[in-house]
Amino acid sequence: MRILFICSEYEGLIKTGGLADACRGLASSLLAAGHQVSVILPRYGALYNVATEAETSVFVELGGQQYGCAVRSTKLHGVALHLVEHHDFFARERPYDDGQHGYADNPLRFAFFCKVAIAWAARQQAFDVLHGHDWQSAPAAFYLHQHQQHNQRLHSPHSLVGVPFVFTIHNGAYQQQCDAGWAPQLGLPIHQQAAQDGYYHELNFLQIALQYATKINTVSQGYRDELLSEPAANGLAGWYQQRQLDFSGILNGCDYQLWDPATDQSISANYNAGDLTGKATCKRQLQQQCQLTQSNGPLLVAVSRVTGQKGYDILIPALKHVLSHYPVQVVIVGSGEASYCQQLHQLTVVFPDKFRFIEGFNEQLAHQVEAAGDFFLMPSLFEPCGLNQLYSLRYGTLPLVRLTGGLKDTVVPWPNNMATGIGFAEPNTEALLEALRQALTLYQDQPAYKKIQQRAMSQSFSWSDASEQYLALYQQAVDAAAATL
Ligand code: ADP
Ligand code: GLC
User: Which end of the chain is more exposed for a tag (fewer CB within 10 A), N or C?
Assistant: First the structure.
């Protein structure tokens, strides 16, 4: 199949979270299975150093205004990469925000990106399926529909006849909602939604894709089921229900080429399930690097976007308690909301021998922390899939997770006799504290801990399983689109 990804992040180029890992992991796996994969994404400031070989000029009209840009192409690990270059919209270091606030022109930037993606794809005559990822690609579902309708009306043959749009929700909480006043400028339809006190009008990018995509999926079966009702659906449950028969869950894979402690070049010593000496070295190394005492007690770690989603409201009070009462150490790497970051910095001051918060986005450190920890903390309030728990399983760093979405689908909680980690259900500090106590108890019983560690390391969440399911979904989408011709 010839597949075009329309996405805003790609591992190795630009990344703020798991979206980047998932796009690259799936693309690589489809490529390995013999399919042609192309990826179109904005040329952010950070991508101006990517050398390109070919250039196409593209002109589009949005809400009566004409815009021009260049689409510059190259190859990256066998994937055809196409970068949409528009200086004013995209030549900024960070993709979506200035570090504090989302860019005010995000609706225009990403509507433009989608319009260009469709106009460019129409000229290529090269795709069997278009695959959009998250809200940043959502308007493309509508622009494709519009393009197809327009050409059908004119009886004009065009290269996107019968080409379906598959839409993957990596995170249903990010929707890009904006005032209906944007609609004419973006040439997008307005969503009329019942509110408690009557009707209000708004433009919601995610909703547009739920309405116009041929097929919809999200990144775990658990999260798919959660999205069918509120509050998980963040106001869009009706739309998920309406598309229920076209809506599936496909669990992400783990890219073991990049995340394997036996070969990882970023960690101080390699190791595998048969010989964990290297893991002990990684722990000592991280303690040294963070100027923590060389304690043999459990080291709890986390690497994440520092947002409400990741459970910081329940985690910070729980950490204060365990740091005060138990011989544990904690290292957190992350960046995000200022109020949480301040509280985490404060913990470093209060517990200088036991706690470190390293603020920032640091990929090498993320690997080192995965390798060094004894437990990986993911007390997420919701988690569409989660990749860090998959990395943690392979690195023998037992995930301690809230049993929600993809976390529930991938971690078997202790004391189940097939346990691979620790779990808790209720999203509150007490429940998390109970899970932390379980982790500390388990750690004291080293034979039991090691048995679970071995089982965790032998888990496999391959992208090839996921890509087979995506191929089946693409085929269903092609059939569904053909049936409407
Ligand atoms: P999400 O996509 O919601 O952020 P995932 O668990 O799916 O959560 O993926 C997060 C990805 O982003 C992982 O690869 C993780 O290592 C990486 N990551 C998150 N924060 C940081 C950070 N501060 N530094 C380096 N990598 C990070
Ligand atoms: C999102 C989700 C995360 C998921 C990732 C990749 O950012 O928050 O759970 O693993 O996308 O699909």
Answer: C
Distance from the Cα of residue 36 to its chain's centroid:
23
Atom of ligand 2 at shortest range from CA of 252: 12
Q: Tell me the β-bridge partners of 5.
A: 39, 131
* Rounded alpha-carbon distances, angstroms, from residue 204 to 51, 111, 216, 287: 35, 12, 16, 46
Q: What is the CATH number of the domain that holds 367?
A: 3.40.50.2000
Predicted local confidence at residue 200, as pLDDT = 55
Written as six digits, the tokens of 131 are 């695959």
Q: Which amino acid is at 135?
A: W
Atom 5 of ligand 2, residue of closest alpha carbon: 18
Which of 16, 133, 170 to probe ligand 2 with, by most ligand atoms within 8 A of CB?
170
* Ligand 1 pocket member 405 (CB < 6 A): no
CA atoms within 13 A on the CB side of 290: 32
104 and 244 fall within a common domain: yes
Q: Residue 404: nearest ligand to its CA? A: 2
Per-residue pLDDT tens digits for 314-330: 999 999 999 999 999 99
Residue written as token pair 């270059």: 85
Q: Which ligand is nearest to the CA of 360?
A: 1
CA 358 to CA 320: how far, in whole Å?
Answer: 17
For ligand 1, whether the C-beta of 173 sits within 6 Å is no
**Contact yes or no for 282/344 (Cβ under 8 A):** no
Do 446 and 470 belong together in one domain?
no
Element (H, E) at 270: none
Q: Is 227 within the bounds of a domain?
A: yes
Place of tokens 């109020």: 339
Both tokens assigned to 76: 């990256």
CA of 304 to the centre of ligand 1 (A): 5
Residues 333 and 373 in one domain: yes
Is the pTM above the cut of 0.90? Answer: yes
Length of the chain: 485
pLDDT, tens digit, 9 for 90 and up, residues 436-452:
999 999 999 999 999 99
Over residues 139-187, the pLDDT tens digits come to 999 999 999 999 888 887 778 989 999 999 999 999 999 988 899 999 9
In short, whether 11's Cβ falls inside 6 Å of ligand 1 is no
